[in-house]
Design brief:
- The chain has 361 residues and is of the alpha/beta class.
- Helices cover 34% and strands 18% of the residues.
- It is built from 15 helices and 14 strands.
- The chain is globular and about 70 Å long.
C-alpha cells in the first residue's frame, strides 16, 4: 500500500494539512499518500457519515460512496452527513455535496446502486481500500469476498443498540496476518436484528465511525498500528473498549470440519474431544465447560455453542453465565481463530481458567 507514486502537495494543500504535517510519526510523506489514495465507503448512513467526512477532511484524494437509499427523516437522528432539506434525495448525492463543500479538492464518485455479489468486484476494483459500514450480512459478505479476490484491505465496523465493533480485514496482509470477515464470523447467517428493530444510540455511530476513519488513515499511510488481527469492541454504556486478539487464518482455506478431525482433536492435555462417546460430553471432564465458537453449530458433541459476534456484544449463553469463573472453560473452533478471540474476551470478562484449541490441525 505504500510504494506507489504520490503527487507532491502544493502550498495550499500543505496549509490545509498543517496539523497532520506537525504530527509526530505522520508528516508530509503520509499526507501525500492520503492525497494519492482512492477509498470507497459502503453506506452513507450512521457509520458512513463520520467516515466520509473525516476522510475527506483528512485529505484522501478520491472517495467513492456506495448507497442505493434516499434520505429519510428517521435517518437524521444519527446520519449527520444529511440534513432536513435533503429528505427524499439520494444519499449519495446529499453526501457528495457535503464532501465537496468540506474539501473541494476531493474527487467524489457516487455509486447510487446496491452492492451485490454480481457487481462488487467491478465497483471495488478501482480503489485502494474499502470501508464497510453496511448493515446487512448479505452486503458484508459480498464486500468481503470481492475484497479478498482483489486483495484489498477492508476497514469494517458495525453498531447496534449501545454496542459497536471495528476491525481491519485483509486477505493479502503481509507477514501471514491475512484475516477476512468470514474467518472471524463464519459463514453468512440469516439476517438478524437491525437499528430499525432494536434502536441505536446516535453518538455511538460517531464513535465507531470515527474509529473506522482512524483505521483507514493508518492503513493508507503506514502509520500507527492498524486493528489487523484485532477486534475492537465498544460499549457506549461504559464508554469502554475491549480488544479481542484474532489469530491468523490457516494456510489451507479449503479445510473443512470433519468427524475424523473432531475425534482426533485434543481439548484438554491428554484428553481427546470425541474419540469415544463418553469423551464427547464435556461432563466427562469434571468441571470443564466446552464452548464451541466454530463455523457449524452442533459440530462438537456436548459443547455449548456461541457466535463470537454475540460474545463480543456481551450476549453470553446461560450455561456460561452459570459456570463458576474459577472453573475451566475450553473454547474450540476449527482453526483456532475465533476460539483465541473468545478466550481473550472471556478472560477480560472475569473467567480465570480459559484455554482455546483448534479442532483442525
Amino acid at each position: 500500500m505504500h510504494d506507489r507514486e504520490v503527487p507532491v502537495l502544493g502550498p495550499a494543500e500543505r496549509r490545509r494539512a498543517a496539523r497532520h504535517l506537525l504530527l509526530d510519526g505522520f508528516g508530509l510523506a503520509a499526507q501525500e499518500r492520503l492525497a494519492a489514495s482512492r477509498v470507497v465507503v459502503v453506506g452513507a448512513g450512521g457509520l458512513g457519515s463520520p467516515v466520509l467526512q473525516y476522510l475527506a477532511a483528512a485529505g484522501v484524494g478520491t472517495l467513492g460512496i456506495i448507497d442505493d437509499d434516499v434520505v429519510e427523516a428517521s435517518n437524521l437522528q444519527r446520519q449527520v452527513l444529511h440534513s432536513v432539506a435533503e429528505v427524499g434525495r439520494a444519499k449519495t448525492a446529499s453526501a457528495a455535496d457535503v464532501l465537496r463543500g468540506l474539501a473541494p479538492d476531493v474527487e467524489v464518485i457516487a455509486h447510487s446502486e446496491r452492492l451485490t455479489r454480481d457487481n462488487a468486484e467491478v465497483i471495488l476494483g478501482g480503489y485502494h481500500l474499502v470501508v464497510d459500514g453496511s448493515d446487512t450480512f448479505e452486503t458484508r459478505y459480498a464486500v468481503s469476498d470481492a475484497a479478498a479476490s482483489l486483495g484489498l484491505p477492508v476497514v469494517w465496523g458495525t453498531v447496534l443498540g449501545w454496542d459497536g465493533q471495528v476491525s481491519v480485514f485483509w486477505s493479502a496482509a503481509p507477514e501471514g496476518r491475512g484475516i477476512t470477515y468470514p474467518d472471524v464470523f463464519g459463514p453468512q447467517p440469516p439476517e438478524g436484528e437491525s437499528c430499525a428493530t432494536v434502536g441505536v444510540l446516535s453518538p455511538a455511530c460517531g464513535v465507531v465511525g470515527s474509529t473506522m476513519a482512524v483505521e483507514a488513515v493508518k492503513v493508507l499511510t503506514g502509520t500507527g498500528d492498524p486493528a489487523l488481527g484485532r477486534l475492537l469492541a465498544y460499549d457506549a454504556r461504559t464508554s469502554g473498549w475491549d480488544t479481542i486478539e484474532l489469530a491468523p487464518a490457516t494456510s489451507d482455506p479449503a479445510a473443512v470440519l470433519t468427524a475424523e478431525a473432531v475425534q482426533a482433536a485434543e481439548i484438554v492435555e491428554g484428553t481427546a474431544l470425541a474419540p469415544a462417546p463418553a469423551a464427547a460430553d464435556p461432563a466427562a471432564v469434571p468441571g470443564v465447560l466446552v464452548l464451541d465458537v466454530g463455523l457449524r453449530p452442533g459440530a462438537v458433541p456436548g459443547a455449548v455453542f456461541a457466535r463470537l459476534e454475540d460474545l463480543a456484544a456481551g450476549n453470553f449463553p446461560p450455561e456460561l453465565l452459570d459456570h463458576p469463573v474459577d472453573e475451566p472453560v475450553v473454547v474450540v473452533c476449527e482453526r483456532g481463530l475465533r476460539s483465541r478471540g473468545a478466550e481473550q474476551l472471556l478472560r477480560a470478562e472475569g473467567w480465570h481458567d480459559v484455554t482455546s484449541r483448534a479442532i483442525l490441525g
